[in-house]
Predict the 3D structure of the following.
Amino acid sequence: MISRSRAAFKRLQRQIERSNACPRLVRYCLAVARTRRPLYRSQTYWGKAVPGFGDPEAELLVIGLAPAAHGGNRTGRMFTGDRSGDFLFRALYKAGFANQPSSSHRRDGLQLINCYVTAAVRWAPPGNKPTPREIRRCLPFLRRELALLPRVKVVLVLGKIAFDAYLQIARRLAVLPPRSRMPFAHGADYRLPDPLPRLVCSYHPSQHNTQTGKLTPAMFRQVLQRARWRIAEAQPVAR
């Protein structure tokens, strides 16, 4: 069963990598890959859409905004090689969802444990601001990843764009409360109708948010602890 799941993920990852669903973002990522940041001048940038990665049997799904221009767009792995990823993977490691506290490239040995990491948008957007149309064009990728992750008990969204994107998918699967009763807020925790998993919210671990103290390690640690509690609550009771 696991081998079939891994094969299905591999097929989806290849399709994402070959996609040109968002022409503006495709052009931008290629331009960044050509010019490169001086610090990474000797490196070959990925320069295309970035798939999610992690444990195909995951009970925790983490959804971010998009790859960073000199992070995922350089390394080819979501959150890998940028400050946001440094913050995220350190926290996942301390919470038991990763085997090491940092990740600098795709083959550095990082393995996620009971966790899968993806994003609402698959290309790095200029100024971290994808258009609504670009977000919609990326939604089928996220929808297909969700279908391949049947054991997910908790979805952790990082930021409002990820929150809104996930709810667009969720509203096609179940009747949800009106948006006025489901505002985005750090630490928000929503029990959604079956068959949807629990929804937990966090500010995005962007460099701006972490440097200004809007999101601290302690705040994010509490969110991951809540996710762990919700996963434990969802387990069947032994008889």
Observations:
- The chain has one domain: 2-233.
- The CA atoms of residues 120 and 142 lie 7 Å apart.
- The chain has a mean pLDDT of 95.
- The radius of gyration is 17 Å.
